[in-house]
Amino acid sequence: MQENQKNIAFVDGQNLHLGTTKHPDLPWRIDLARFRVYLTEKYSIDTAYYYLGYPSAQNNDLYEELQSAGFVIRFRDHVPNSLSAKKGNVDTDIVFDIMLAIYKDELKNVLLVSGDGDYAKMVRFLVKEKKLLKLLFPNQKRASALYGNIHSDYKVDLSRPDMRQKIGQKERAG
Fold it and tell me: Any stretches that span the bilayer, and where are they (predicted)?
């Protein structure tokens, strides 16, 4: 094991957003600064990558908030003339970056924030290789059934009331 290995978080930003802010039953907003502190203190996360679709001037406030909180923003590559027709879909970028970090022996453990079943095969591989630290679901009830066979020790539901208390945005007095 190399000394430069670290625990790294990979956040599927669209999945996190859809599972929290856009949740149809119980919408809530994560306080990104508190979330980043939580990742550092609870899981010793050195670097936290936050993956988004393509850059848009409409989202400059979000980008500033992410960077101020200590996240490293990663955008998906797109052909410039087709940006309006594309969705975020960062799954392959996340899988590639995780596998590249493993190949280069740059990480100790992976923390993945997503409930998207597209990561299930990689998550099973990470468990087998003892490289999965945690899988944080934005909302476990809406997570893919493909994670059903992953041991509960690896899974955390961010929508639980205690988690919302830790990382949720505080209500402002009116």
Answer: none
